[in-house]
Amino acid sequence: MRDFEFVTLTPQEFDAFSSKHPQSNFQQTSAMGRLRTMDGIEVEYLGVRESGTIVAAALFETHRSRFSTFSEVHDGPLCDWRDREVVECFMNALRRHAKAKGAAQLSITPEAPYRLRNSDGSLIEGEQGEPADYIVDTLKACGFEHEGFTVGYTAVPRWRYVKDLSGISDEKALLKSYDKRTQWSVKRASSMGVHVRELGVGELGVFADIERQTAERRGFEYRGEGYFRRFKEAFGGAAHFMVAEIHVAEYVADMEAKRDALQAKVEALQAKQAQHPTTRTERQLGEETRNLEAARKRLAEAAEYAGDGDVLPAAASLFVENPRETVYLFSGSVERYKPFYASALIQHWAMLHLCVERGVGRYNFYGISGVFDDPDDEGRGVLEFKQGFNGYVEELSGSFVLPVRPVVFKLKNAAHRILGR
Fold first, then answer.
1. CATH topology for 4-109+399-419?
2. Rounded mean pLDDT of 78-106?
3. pLDDT tens digits, 140-157
């Protein structure tokens, strides 16, 4: 008979287990525990030992308000979902613990993928594409209610876009792994005076301002500068707030050099055509003349950008390091500077420096809507941007809710329906 023990872990014990687990993620770390605590959430690190060895663990949250108490595990628990005995032992122990905390329900979102899909959302043939129904079946047997195989954005994404960087060892190979359009965008940004750097703690207002502008433009929730400062305090060096900036003088100098080179080419073609007119030279002259006019136009636009300042923040992103992966968590961009393709360059920078150079083979673009066949879907632009980096899709099993105090749980749900929230 197997010997299981339900235990409270220290943050150090929890991190040691989490960092080596196949489902390791930033949500299941003591850093996230610190952040949750700063936000007024009660946090515990709970686990199961078998013969003294930790075999399952979870960052367990208890949320309390004036009207309700509930428990939650984000992107966990961390366990072998095929080991039904361990899962059932842990789920039953978590249910009892949640009840002791006065929670009406316990919600979990397993990190283990339900099914892998191709970049376009189509099913992968073979074992990788087989659904992990055993996760759903085991949790239902433990009394959990499955909230369904939903699409759309959720607080903990059910659909994720991921890139496998295994076998990529340098920048040249990384760039080549993207589709042609994204390769062009990265190169274009680099040639237009865009540089990526990490923001210091005292500069987080720059990140927050770009995030606020993007939230207002796209209609999503803005977390606020205070949240980002708490995030950095909790995660320390594992959180990278990056900004892509346009160095205007560099951009202007580059455009002037291109204009001058095109001017010289046009003058040479004009002289050649005057001496010996041919259809080919005439065609080349027309093409290069149009290129020259475009360069002059961009140079005039550069003069307008110069009025905004010498160095212009164009895009910003938050990346979180984990032993298993780097996660692209938050981002924003300045609409006025969209032609500089700063968002593509900042992604390239993160994959190169936070994955390839660290020897980490997994880059997690995080949430997508899970809708692949509707060009008018709200997440279409995000999906197409991420698809340009040539990854694959993880469909997770979703959210599960266990009514810990069934009567209170039903009353709470009824109240939410009446209040319309």
1. Aminopeptidase (3.40.630)
2. 97
3. 999 999 999 999 988 899
Cα(270)–Cα(279) distance, integer angstroms: 13
Helix ranges (DSSP H) in 160-309: 171-176, 180-191, 204-218, 225-235, 248-275, 279-306
| Neighbouring C-beta atoms of residue 266, cutoff 10 Å | 20
Would you state the pLDDT for residue 92?
A: 97
Greatest Cα pair distance, the chain, in angstroms, is 97
Order of strands across the sheet that contains 362-367: 113-117, 392-396, 159-164, 362-367, 326-333, 311-321, 239-247, 194-198
325 backbone dihedrals φ, ψ, rounded to 5° = -160, 170
Which 3 state secondary structure label does DSSP give 366?
strand
The candidate with the shortest Cα–Cα distance to 345, out of 375, 304, 314, 318, is 314
* pLDDT tens-digit readout, 183-215: 999 999 999 999 999 999 999 999 999 999 999
User: Does 410 have pLDDT greater than 70?
Assistant: no
Distances (CA, A) of 401 to 27, 65, 259, 396: 18, 19, 63, 15
What CATH number does domain 161-247+309-396 carry, 3.40.50.720, 3.40.630.30, 2.40.300.10, 3.40.50.300? 3.40.630.30
CA-CA distance, 160 to 366, in Å (whole number)?
5
Say whether 215 sits in a helix, a strand or coil.
helix
Question: Can you tell me the distance from the alpha carbon of 360 to that of 120, in angstroms, rounded to the nearest whole number?
Answer: 24
Give the Cβ contact number of residue 251 at 10 Å. 22
Neighbour tally for 113: CB within 10 Å: 19
Would you call 74 helix, strand, or coil by DSSP? Answer: coil
Q: How much is the pLDDT for 412?
A: 63
Whole-number Å distance between alpha carbons of 9 and 237? 24
In angstroms, the Cα distances linking 119 to 161, 171, 327 are: 8, 22, 18
Q: Which residue in 135, 136, 153, 154 sits closest to 145, CA to CA? A: 136
Query: How far apart, in Å, do the first and last CA atoms of the chain sit?
Result: 47
Tokens of 65: 């308000």
250: how many CB neighbours lie within 10 A of its CB?
16
Whether the per-residue pLDDT at 299 is higher than 90: the answer is no
**Structure-token match 């994720």, residue found:** 160
pLDDT at 158: 96
Calpha distance 35→51 (Å, rounded) = 32
Cis peptide bond prior to 77, omega within 30° of 0: yes
